[in-house]
Amino acid sequence: MYDLSTRERALALLAQGRSLNSVSNETGISRSAIRSWQTRIQPKRGGIPCPRCRTQPGPPEDAPAYAYLLGLYLGDGCISAHRRGVHSMRIVLDRAWPGVIEACEKALRAVRPMNSIFRERKQGAYAVVSTSKHWPCLFPQHGPGKKHERPIALEPWQQEIVDTHPWEFIRGLIHSDGCRTTNWTTRVIGGERKRYEYPRYFFTNTSADILGLFTATLDSVGVAWRQANSRNISVARKASVALMDAHVGPKY
Question: What is the value of pTM for the model shown?
Answer without folding.
Answer: 0.76
